[in-house]
Amino acid sequence: MAEQLDFAALWPYWPELLAGLWVTLQLTVMATVGGLATGIVGAAIRSGRTTWFSRIWGAYVEIVRNTPFVVQLFFIVFGLPNLGLKMTAGEAALLAMIVNLGAYSTEIIRAGIQVTPKGQWEAGRVLGLTRLQTFIRVVLPPALQRIYPALVSQCIIVMLGSSVVSQVSYEELTFAANLIQSRTFLSFEVYLVITGIYLALSMTLRQLMMAAGRKWLGVQT
After folding, report:
1. What tens digit of pLDDT does each residue of 154-167 get?
2. For the whole model, what pTM was predicted?
3. With 141 labelled, which of 100, 176, 192, 195 sits at a CA distance of 20 to 30 A?
4. Residues 170, 23: contact at Cβ < 8 Å?
5. How many CB atoms lie within 10 A of CB 205?
6. Could you write out the DSSP letters of every residue in 170-190?
């Protein structure tokens, strides 16, 4: 006889799920802001003249893009303390997500900058703007318009990757799901619910970010 599903047994654990969801949302927002800021700075550095600093930043990008996120997380959590840099699980999780998104967004934004006509840089100089002012006011906005959908997708990927931080006992959504499953043994029900929550969160976040892009950057969708 087929086993019957028992979603009702999960109802008492909704507070834990909501608490984990709130932590995931906080992580996502802070990592998105920090990662995109890092990416903009990195793209500016990588798009300029080749210097020792741009080479170091390029090495950082290559290392992050060619290693698993879980290895990066474990290095921050377990490796950095050996250098005297001790952090809580939450601080380490946030740093790992910012570092990861920063590397990927550096290359995405740089791709948008590279296709910017050189005439825009020259127009900025004619107007008496410094190179930094030209980058921020003239070059960056249209570059972000071009690559914004790809940037949003990368932010979603990082949000979904936040589930990995449950491996360092940080109490986000996946950690809550694992805890509930260990108490109820309702594996199918628990992870089906979590799948639905992550799906809804991804779709909602994508819609919100695209709406923000249309309003503030004039992104065409």
Report:
1. 999 999 999 999 99
2. 0.94
3. 100
4. yes
5. 18
6. --SHHHHHHHHHHHH--HHHH
